[in-house]
Amino acid sequence: MQKLIFSVVAIIAVVAGVVIFNSLPQPKPQALVYNPPRQMEPFILEAHNGGPVTNADLTGQWTFLFTGYTSCPDICPTTMADFKKILPQLASVADRPVKVWMISVDPQRDTLQRLADYTTYFGTEFMGVRAEHKDLYPFVNGLGLMYSIPDEGEVDYLVNHSSAIVLVNPQGERHAIFKSSQTPGKLPTVDMQQMLEDFQLITQQYHD
């Protein structure tokens, strides 16, 4: 009889613990997480290795997308270097490969060879992609990002572009966007440590 009572009490305690745990506020990412994830329009871009990339190349992996260009003096090389440092940690919390795409917003100067030299320096998980403005602009705009187009004939110019990072899930859908921090006197870059924490929560909650 006592064993039965102990068993009943133990079961009640477990059930109560589960109820209390489920009623507690669960941690949420600080990033903007799309619920449900958003479909991406069909696209065809050029990879730095010379081959085409389409929506299919985003499936089966987690992909971080951001805009940049090889002549960028500050935000782009900083973001690439930060990604290189934190990529092993990002990969450790995911059960799928983790890739990084730098979308060149300077097709006039960023040839495939130039993109290849730039992105492969950071590692094999990095890919540079490009397209002419007629295909590039709608793709970037569809990600919720932007960039400026230089006047015709300009040679020495800067390209204004978004510093946010878009996360695409293994089904090739836009899953989240990480906004950059706006601190006076500092570059508007994404907080990589916060992004790592958010990514871990996102992967734990993800079901394909």
Descriptive overview:
With 208 residues, the chain is an alpha+beta fold. The protein has a single domain, classed as Glutaredoxin, CATH 3.40.30. The chain is built from 5 helices and 8 strands, in the order H-E-E-E-E-H-E-H-E-H-E-E-H. The chain has helices at residues 2-23, 75-92, 112-120, 133-142, 192-205; strands spanning 32-38, 44-47, 52-54, 62-68, 98-104, 126-130, 165-168, 174-178. Helix 2 (75-92) packs parallel to helix 5 (192-205). The model is unreliable at 13-24 (pLDDT under 50).
Features:
208 residues, alpha+beta, Glutaredoxin, 8-stranded mixed beta sheet, 8 strands, globular, Thioredoxin-like_sf
What is the CATH topology assignment? Glutaredoxin
Compute the number of strand runs.
Answer: 8
H and E order? HEEEEHEHEHEEH
Radius of gyration: 21 Å
Poorly predicted sequence stretches spanning 5 or more consecutive residues: 13-24
CATH-level-4 superfamily name: Glutaredoxin
What level of helicity do the residues show? 25-40%
Number of domains: 1
Overall geometry: globular
> Major sheet: order of its strands?
1-8-7-4-5-6-2-3
Number of helices: 5
Give the N-terminus to C-terminus distance in angstroms: 47 Å
CATH architecture level-2 label: 3-Layer(aba) Sandwich
**In CATH's first tier, which class applies?**
Alpha Beta
Biggest sheet, open or closed, and with what strands and sense?
Answer: 8 strands, mixed
Amount of beta strand: 15-25%
Mean pLDDT: 89
Structural class: alpha+beta
GO molecular function, one term: metal ion binding
Domain Thioredoxin: 34-201
Keywords: Copper, Disulfide bond, Metal-binding
Pfam family, one: SCO1-SenC
